[in-house]
Amino acid sequence: MARMSAVERRVRAAFHAGAEIALAAGDPPLPGAVIADLLCRPVDRAEHPRAALRLRGATVTGPVDVTDAEIAVPVRFRECRFDAPVDLSGAQPADLRFSRCELHGLRARLVVVRGDVSLADSTVEGPLDLSDARIGGDLVLERARLRHPAGRALAAARLTVGGSLLGTGLHAAGELWLDGAQVGGNLVLDGAVLRNPSKRAVAGDRLVIGGNLRAGDGLDVHGELFLVHVQVGGQLWFVGATLAAPDGFALHLGSGKADSVWLCFAETPVGRVRLSGLRAETVFDDPAVWPARLDLVGCTYRLLIARSFEGRRPGPAAVVTVPVRRRLEWLRRSPDGYAPQPYEQLAEAYRRGGQDVEARRVLLEKQRRRRTGLHLPGRIGGYLLDGLVGYGYRTWQAGLWLLVFWALGAAAFTAWPPPPRNRAEAPEPSAALYALDLLLPIINLGHDTAWKPAGTAQYVAAALVVMGWVLTTAVVAGLSRIINR
């Protein structure tokens, strides 16, 4: 057996006593095999009840391989440097903490940790692999630096975290791969800087979060924020975030679900924002930073509220009044053209808020957008319906047209008075009453059957009958809709 160095003896003594040992810059490096041996050996708790590995300021050479080991003692590394990967794959530590450390990769696939895992203020050069890991407490990546530009800086697919995943101030070069991960508490990326240009900065397909997903307060993302099918029990928060993916999705929340979604970015996102299929109770947005390309097909919400944050930073938010005209511009930002559902959803939100006039305006615009995709006969018919009754959403237009046709009819019958069918029974001639009787098909004033128009007058009479049925039907339908509401 190789003779132990003085540093090794000090480390082993501190391990059994559970004390922190601080190594100075002049101390020789500590072999990784020594750390692996300490962590893999069974510990006699009767003899060493406070055993723990608490190492500070060490330079560790060579790999630290503790795969599949059951580690019964606390593990703490502070200000340590590792020149080779640390491999914890399949291990079962009580908890694991690296503070202000430098690592060349950390492999922890299938690791099972009863407590917390922390890499706060640490730097990982190479992949941090937590795929299929189970962490009973929190995963702390606050102010950590993960650098693996060629691949996945954090591989955490199917990761299970009982507490929260805390990444405030995280800096990552490479992809954060969170597909299928489950976080019982909150996922926090406030103030993080994520860089993976032209690729996915965050991939979170079917990510499940029991609390809130906070990704704002200075979050800066260059790359796609891809969160399809995400399920969030509380808020999806992007207040104060800067998102840029010029050739892709700056934000993809397709088919996601959340209690509320806050889309009050620090500035207008560069790239496409997709909310297709998103389900939320409330959507908050800021008209000043609406995306230029916005997919809303299938997005459902109960309330739509515009908010403005002073200086584009979180703080007291003011409710902003957005005219329906601007909301219609918001709907027209879809890069795929017309779809009816976003208009129907917006109209329903207006109706739920008691804004029936705005709801009818949205549904009218829906018909007008639909008209642009019809063939010529359909467009002509659409223009006719729009001009006469506003597709049934402006019944007052029908009333105006009734007045117009009444005046025209009265003028026509004054110029070409029709002769009576029976002079003995005919009422006193009245061009206005005759025109009105023809226009109102459900009311009989006794004039429409008393006179027999001829020549030009008979064509005028036929036109008044046809227009009367069309316009009266539109008015009745509009009144019925109002009474039903």
Automatic annotation (TrEMBL):
Keyword terms of this UniProt record: Membrane, Transmembrane, Transmembrane helix
Source organism, top-level taxon: Bacteria
Record's keyword annotation contains Transmembrane helix: yes
Protein name in UniProt: Pentapeptide repeat-containing protein
Transmembrane segments: 399-419, 459-479
Lineage of source species: Bacteria, Bacillati, Actinomycetota, Actinomycetes, Micromonosporales
The keyword Transmembrane helix is annotated on this UniProt entry: yes
